[in-house]
Amino acid sequence: MTRLLREYEKVITIISVLIGSLLIWEIVVRVFSVRHFLLPAPSAILADIFKNWDVYLQNSVATLEVTLTGFALAVIFGVLFAVAIVHSRFLEHAFSTLLVSLNSLPKVALAPLFVIWLGTGMASKTMVAVTIAIFPIVIDTALGLRSIDPDVLNMANAMRASRWQVLLRVRFPNALPALFAGMKVAISLALVGTIVGEFVAGNAGLGNAILAAQATFDTPQVFASIIVLGLIGTVLFYVIDFLERKLVPWHASQRLSSGMATA
Question: Which of 66, 96, 118, 146 could make a disulfide contact with 194, Cβ separation 3.0–4.6 Å?
């Protein structure tokens, strides 16, 4: 069975399940006359999205801007922290303790502090996204940098490779699969952090739209905003998955996936 046919079947299955679920939802709401503000029908939610598409688009852009900025900063500083952890035992203890302590704190509790320090603009929401998303980047990248065959390191040392050459040409390429695994988790967490920031100090974005809709019991708008958030998160995840397949096709997981697809 070809890979294209398998992908086609996968898409058809997902669409069929989604449409079936929406139909059941619509039928249940109509048959049992569920109140509109408790559980709106999918048709009402979709109608609200099409009616106010420009509002959802504007809020989506605002949320996406903060999410991507926070994610990019989490990747940059996460990789730098991982390199520091791998190359210095002192920094390993210092950063590891700091990151574990930071990760154990409820991020909602940190959001008001960022508002006090950075104001109610984009900076405070970005920092919330960074603090939530950075942990998996550091952990997975450090694991990848350490997971080197000792024989490979011995060969690099025998060839008198410098520390930077070993890092850039041996350790970092080996860590790419682990880095992408952390990025897949981090992109979803960055989106969560953005929404948390918009809940606390948002004047734009889908999180702010959800709060505004809640205040007026506009349940279709709440559901519509959640659906748009789900679509954004799904697209971002598969963009990273696509980049992983293009940049690390040599990894065992990619070869196994390709082999299963062409079987």
Answer: 66
